[in-house]
Amino acid sequence: MSLQLIVGNLIIFYFASTESNRYGTHLLFICSSLGAFAFFGYQQRTIAFLFMVFSSALFVISYFGFSDSSEKIINIYFAFNFFMAMLVSALIIHFIFRLHHHAEMQLREKNDLLTKTNHELDRFVYSASHDLQAPLSSLLGLVEIAQQARNAEEAKQCLHMMKTRVNDLDQFIKEVIDYSRNSRQEISFENFNFSDLTKEVVEGLKFTQGFENVRVQYEMPDNQVMCTDRSRLKIILSNLIGNAMKYQDTEKEERTVSVSARLIAREWHLTVRDNGIGIAPAYKHKVFNMFFRASEKSSGSGLGLYIVQEAV
């Protein structure tokens, strides 16, 4: 395409330099410049501008190099009008291409978002139906066993197991609600005390199994105030601290979870650190995937860290 434009400019240059200026052949350089914008488009607009400079140079050579010197003033006025027409035409074409480019980018982003949403919805329906069906089936089985229990101890054990299944269902439903809220609600900024929010989250997790065995450390001033979406930050902290509680290392005598907040160059750096069992390196690139579980022993739904990433 570049070669064709160069050859076209040279052909125009030949006729413009051999014919009289009165024929207006030089105006074809404007068409050549606009053609460069049409050929290269918005992405390669720099090359199009270079071709416009090339066409302008050929115009100057052909017009002033072979023109009648007695009509110098007329030639200058014509050249001025020529360059103004070329420049304005190029800017108009560039503006139109820019609008088209941005509209195309927005459409592509919306299509990508729609594709992502449809893909997530398919996975969500499939996995959610499984995660809801398994505890319910287990509950029905436990009800049958409880009805046939021979003594109070067996019935009590069944009730304890049923309570565990109900808690799992309750936690899963809460995660689904968090996911739904995050995808639908607008971001809401407000000022709040980060230390109070963190302690509120920890207080809400006190009924988690093994909570009493973990020591929570707060590495932040008590009067630390930040401005962001409080509800989303609470979801993030609840999932991260909850995971630290859930996957504590029972072989360690001291089990800790630390939450820190530091303001660096007008940016908040928040850290949740624990000395639990950790995540195998082979799974670290997948932990933010929807419904991914790093282990068959995982009691969660696999939505927690996915929701954390979406909320962030």
Describe the protein's architecture and organization.
This protein is mainly alpha-helical and 312 residues long. 63% of the residues lie in helices and 10% in strands. The chain has helices at 2-18, 28-40, 45-65, 72-147, 152-184, 194-204, 230-246, 304-311, and strands spanning 190-193, 214-219, 225-228, 255-264, 267-274. The radius of gyration is 35 Å and the shape is elongated. 18% of the residues are buried. The mean pLDDT is 79.
* Coarse structural class: mainly alpha
Distance between the termini: 46 Å
The overall pLDDT average reads 79
> Total strand count, please?
5
Strand order, largest beta sheet: 2-4-5
Beta-strand fraction estimate? 5-15%
SSE layout:
Elements: H1 2-18, H2 28-40, H3 45-65, H4 72-147, H5 152-184, E1 190-193, H6 194-204, E2 214-219, E3 225-228, H7 230-246, E4 255-264, E5 267-274, H8 304-311
Parallel strand pairs: 2-4
Antiparallel strand pairs: 1-3, 4-5
Helix pairs in contact: 1-2, 1-3, 2-3, 2-4, 3-4, 4-5, 5-8, 6-7, 7-8
Question: What's the quick description here?
Answer:
This protein has 312 residues and is mostly helical.
